[in-house]
User: Fold these one by one.
Assistant:
Number 1:
Amino acid sequence: MNLHNLALGSKLAWKMYKYPQKIWCKILSRKYLDSTKPERIFTLANSKGGSPIWRFIWESRRIISEHLTWKIGNDKKARFWRDSWNGDTPLAEAFDDQDWVNQVEASVGPFVADYMHQMPKSTTLIIWKKVGDWNQANGKKLEELLINKKKIHYNCEEDSLIWCVAKSGMYKVQLGYELQRHREKDTKWPGALCWNKSVLPKAGVFLWIALHGRILTGERLKLSGISCPSICTLCKGDGEMTEHFLFWCPYAKQCWDWLLGCL
Ligand SMILES: [Zn+2]
């Protein structure tokens, strides 16, 4: 998709989230999302068919969805472990022991609000509930992570999503366009390596296929009319795209880090 169109399509996704009361947003939300949860526009994993305008918005939204964080208010939208909030990566990603994370989540709750003690509205410091033994390694680590997050303005507004790229937290088409343009420039494909003698033939062919955008990812299969879930099988992230599993997926990043560390 053309970069300008992508940036404009993202604007429509942002409007669906920020202004759900607009008539066209209401119509699309009622048809394709849960109209009480407009934030789902950024997390909806599968979009079955739909009108051209809906497909356009759904496919464009990634400029926004990859840079979102929750501003914590006083309700239950931001998930404590699974979502980015207060500008940080999701807490669950900091822990190797996912069983412990799942246990705590099951006993305390999934939302940030479940972990806060009720405080007067004017308070800007959060007192976190104790969710385990702080002396144990996991508890200690969580306590340290939460200490950095204590300066949250606790208020009676709803939790709201902000786009981290803009200071205002609001999506801007120009910024979205620039962001995507730089990303594409940064991820320039090494096409010359495809048929290089020093590269394994199967690796060269794979690179050539990737270079031409012909890898059968979930996103590509959907474009061909084949209905299948478009979820990364490694990180369970939304949207299986070539760039995701080669560069942006946390697992791919680990591989690149390892490889670069060996050089
Ligand atoms: Zn992934």
Number 2:
Amino acid sequence: MSAAVRCSHGARSAASCATAESDPCLRCGACCAAFRVDFSVHETEELGGSVPQGLAVDVTPCIARMRGTDHTRPRCAALTGQVGVRSACAIYEWRPSPCREFEAGSDACERARARHGLAPLMP
Ligand code: SF4
Ligand code: SF4
């Protein structure tokens, strides 16, 4: 995201071995509905990366963005489920680098949770 980015968490794939009990991200997804998610166009499938082309929009010749993350009420097009209840990233294995680098419990994570009225992860 331009401001920060998502998770190694992310809302994990439903196919992940993690459970909602062991992984709070599965009951969250707030960061996937809080920030712009920008990354190099080279991470898109079209240019040899893994992010499905239909879920990304070009911002500049060098930068792509996850679709939906620049809306007034941001929500990544790859996010499934309901924020704060149960959510998952539909492209978890193929998500862009900002999502892989985002850390649960970070300041940005807590800001995203607060934005959605969720309690701090690390009180
Ligand atoms: S690609 Fe997945 S992890 Fe990244 S913002 Fe979208 S839903 Fe979240
Ligand atoms: S905001 Fe934090 S707890 Fe929620 S899904 Fe993202 S990293 Fe996980």
